[in-house]
Specification:
139 residues, mainly alpha, 0% strand
Length: 139
């Protein structure tokens, strides 16, 4: 039976439980899909989307959450999530947050494109993320 309410801490804990033991491995998409199903049944909210973005940012930077995965589909369905995406992507760059920015940039979002440019030129950015950002901009 789906739960009726989730705190941000509940959501973040469930996502942490789905993470692989190794850096850059695949998260358990079945567990994530179950979480998303329960969140949808409870009624999606911006608070839930924000908790998901925070959890993605707190995961190892190259964790794979799907293509794009249930978390991204859920977050993208919540109106107004964009500002929390920008904040998360600037605070804790990860490959999955970069991918979310690229999806928005492909749709013409200027703020996402600006953050991707920041990734591409930042000396503090992990090399692999910087290279992914550079590759996206080169297209």
């Amino acid at each position: 039976m789906p739960r009726t309410a989730f705190t941000p801490a509940d959501i973040e804990a469930r996502i942490r439980e789905s993470l692989p033991a190794d850096e850059g491995g695949d998260a358990d998409e079945m567990r994530l899909a179950e979480l998303v199903h329960e969140l949808e049944a409870a009624g999606p909210s911006l608070e839930q989307a924000t908790a998901i973005l925070r959890a993605i940012g707190a995961a190892p930077p190259f964790t794979h959450f799907g293509d794009p995965g249930p978390l991204v589909h859920f977050v993208e369905s919540v109106p107004g999530y964009e500002h929390d995406l920008y904040r998360a992507a600037r605070a804790t760059p990860t490959a999955h947050l970069l991918w979310m920015l690229q999806r928005r940039a492909n749709a013409g979002d200027a703020e996402s494109l600006a953050i991707i440019r920041e990734y591409a030129v930042s000396e503090d950015m992990p090399g692999q993320l910087r290279e992914r950002a550079e590759s996206f901009l080169a297209r």
